[in-house]
Amino acid sequence: MDQAMTTAEMVNQFLSEWVLIGDPDISESLEVRGGRVLCHSKDRDEVYRTAVALRPRRFATLYTGTIPEDTAIVL
């Protein structure tokens, strides 16, 4: 898959999945607005393995589901 989409389109099409985005369109505040969907899966590790195999120069990952309230996020 190598389809350009907005983040909203990704959320609608790949609900509760991890998405590997190539050449992401990023705002000044570093929010991903869209890009080329290189891979998507419910399995995060599969998306990471694909990133390692493809070795894109610029990429982002996005989770399109809801993160549980008791989850800590480290940036």
Q: Give the averaged pLDDT, no decimals.
A: 93
Give the structural class. alpha+beta
Q: Approximately how much beta-strand content do the residues carry?
A: 35-45%
Strand order of the largest sheet: 1-3-2-4
SSE ordering: EHEEHE
Shape: globular
Q: Identify low-pLDDT runs.
A: none
Task: Compute the separation of the termini in Å.
Answer: 28 Å
Question: How many individual domains?
Answer: 1
Largest beta-sheet characterization: 4 strands, antiparallel
Helix share, percent: 10-25%
Number of strands: 4
Radius of gyration, taken over Cα atoms and rounded to an integer in Å: 12 Å
Number of helices: 2
Question: What features would you describe in this structure?
Answer:
The protein has 2 helices and 4 strands. Strand 2 (18-26) and strand 3 form a beta hairpin. The protein has helices at 7-13, 44-54; strands spanning 3-6, 18-26, 32-41, 59-63. A 4-stranded antiparallel β-sheet has the order 1-3-2-4. 13% of the residues are buried. With 75 residues, it is an alpha+beta fold. The chain has one domain (3-63). It is globular and about 35 Å long. 24% of the residues lie in helices and 37% in strands.
